[in-house]
Structure formats: C-alpha cells, structure tokens
Amino acid sequence: MGGRTDRDVILEVRDVSVSFDMDRGESRVLDSVSLDIYRDEILGVVGESGSGKSMFASALLDAVVRPGQLTGEITYYPTEGEEIDLLDLSPAELKRLRWEEISMVFQGAMSSFNPTMKIRQHFEETLDAHQQDRERGLEHARELLSDLYLDPDRVLRSYPHELSGGMSQRALIALSLVLEPRVLVMDEPTAALDLLMQRSILSLLERLQEKYNLTIVFITHDLPLVAGLADRLAVMYAFEFAEIGPSEELIRDAAHPYARSLLKAVPNLDAPLDRMRPIAGSAPDPVNVPTGCSYHPRCPLADDECIEADPGYYDVGENRVAACHHWRESSEAIPYSVSGSDVDEEDDVEVVE
C-alpha cells in the first residue's frame, strides 16, 4: 500500500485502527490505515492538527494509551531473524523491541528528560534497562552527540535545564539512538524550535540516516519543512491517508484535493499571497466522520458519488495512490505552483545552539 515497489519492507501496517469509547459514541482516531514502510527510507507523515498523525506514531510502537483500543496488524521485519507480529508481543518482548529495534522522539525534549537527572544518567539508565554494556554504550553516546554537533563532555555532565532547546532536542535524538535501533519514529520533533534550528536538525538527521542506515518516520504538520528531507510523503486527513507517494512528485502535482489545498495554503510556495487560501471548513469530529469520502464537505469536486461511496485508493502515478474518485480533475480545480527551492533537498545549515 502506498507506492509498493520491490524495495525491502521493514514495517507493514494493515487495517490499523485506534478507537476510544465515549459517552456520545465511539471515537475513531485512526481509521483502518494500511502502509508499507521501506528499509532505510525517510517517510514524512503530514496533516493538520487532529488528523491522526500522532496516533499513527503511537500505533507503530503499540504505545496507544488506555482506554484506547488498537486493532489491525503491524509486522516488523528485522534485518535478521523471523518477522515479528508487533501487536502480539508480551510486555517484556515489547519493552525490548522499543528502543532496541524501534525508537521514538517526541515533541519537546524538556518534557522527555527527568529534570533531576543529568543527561549522562539518562543514557546510563537506558543502557542498564536493556542489559547493555554501559562503557560501550556511553562511547556510542559520545559518538552520536558529536554527530549532532554537540560537545559530549559538556552535554553528559549537564542537567536538562542547562541546555538550550536545540541542544536538548539533539541530546534526545542521541538518546533514542544509543541502542542502535533500525527505525526512528519522530513525532513533531522540531515543533518547539525556531526555523533555523529546525533546518539544522533536519540536515543532521539526513546525515545520521545515511551513517547508521536508519529508517525514519517523520511526523509533522509542516509540509514544506519535511518536503526536502523525505523520500516519500503520506498525507493524512480524518484519521486515514489521503495520498501517498514520492515526495517530489507529490509536492509538484498532488492528486488528492486535500493535498493540493494543503499545498496551496502554505506560505513557501511560489505564488502571490493573495492567491494563497486557507482550507474552508474544519476537520471532522472523530465521533461523526462523514460517510463516503471523509473530505467531501470541504471539497470543491464533491458530488453524490463522494457522499455515498468510500473512494478507496486509485493509482495516480508510479508508486503513488490517492483516495479520490475525481483525482483527474483536481489539478484544474485546485491550481497551485511551487518553486524549485520548495522541493529540493535542504542545503547544509550551520548548527547553532
């Protein structure tokens, strides 16, 4: 699903849903999503606030908080050994898989660190919890911190509050990688940082991904931010994927009306400000998602077919799919233009503290 090729799949997501029972009915905050994540790729997951992005991240680690109910299939394919049914692991097996195979970086490093512990203690505690050699692990931690343009001695002896926001976030990335996982899930990891630091961290992530052969799932509401980093983009709307495909192709000529409207609304595009328009309407209530195509109340192409029938996925290009009955008409109905700089890879950016 989502641009299947002959590339090696590391995570296979099939019909995964997350729901909460509420007084006014079932709230489904992830709706039967399916996606292949390829080994060594950077996948950008993009959408408005409340679209289901963070819940997708939690599902990938079977970390949905109670009383949320997670269903479906998530299969992890390690480099060696048999495939792993991630949703069928015991608590001990799941604890071992997290950090060692699949790790996660959350938004806001300050809330992820214990303020009473020095950064070194966080690394030691993580290594000890997974029965890893402390000396070897700390040596790797130093290498990671150096890779992230940090002074290892200074950072390791510091308390979290003694580091700037950018330094803290990079230290958290190093901590997430200290056990040498194969997959790194990042949920809005740069949202609290200024634009220069965001670009700096993205540039460093690209280098880390190449050095350590990482698969990165980068979740953000900021489409232009991730466009130059990601190999593929998966655009979320109403708790499911609206369009999935190679990053540059999707940015230049999105097929789904929501993806096109999202691109038209961002300020990084090569178009006059008076032609940029916010998307009319609001995202659906998770208890009352529209029938048929969930985007039809906001879509200029919507007709009776959209109201009555779920579109499923259409092949809209090589290794691209979109959930839209009328994707062929979307280009004319929702025009936009992009400059080359919007989709080119990020230039090297000097890292600042």
CATH topology: Rossmann fold
Low-confidence stretches: 344-350
Q: What's the CATH class label?
A: Alpha Beta
Helical content (DSSP H or I, runs of 4+): 25-40%
Shape estimate: globular
Q: State the distance separating the first and last CA atoms.
A: 40 Å
Percent of residues in β-strands: 15-25%
**Biggest sheet descriptor:** 8 strands, mixed
The main sheet orders its strands as 6-7-8-3-9-10-12-11
How would you classify the helix and strand content by structural class? Answer: alpha/beta
SS elements, strand count: 12
Q: On the 0-100 scale, what is the average pLDDT? A: 89
Order of helices and strands: EEEHEEHEHHHHEHEHEEHHHEEH
The total number of structural domains is: 1
CATH architecture name: 3-Layer(aba) Sandwich
Detail the topology: elements first, then pairings.
Blueprint (H helix, E strand, L loop, with lengths): L8 E14 L2 E14 L3 E5 L6 H8 L8 E8 L7 E2 L5 H10 L1 E4 L13 H11 L4 H14 L4 H5 L8 H13 L5 E5 L7 H18 L2 E6 L2 H5 L4 E6 L2 E7 H6 L4 H9 L38 H5 L5 E4 L2 E3 L4 H7 L20
Parallel strand pairs: 3-8, 3-9, 6-7, 7-8
Antiparallel strand pairs: 1-2, 1-4, 4-5, 9-10, 10-12, 11-12
Helix pairs in contact: 3-4
Short description:
The chain is α/β, with parallel strands linked by helices.
Notes on the protein architecture:
There is one protein chain. The chain is α/β, with parallel strands linked by helices and 353 residues long. The protein has twelve helices and twelve strands. Strands 6-7-8-3-9-10-12-11 form an eight-stranded mixed β-sheet, sandwiched between helices. Strand 11 (314-317) and strand 12 (320-322) form a beta hairpin. Helix 3 (119-129) crosses helix 4 (134-147). Residues 344-350 have low confidence and may be disordered.
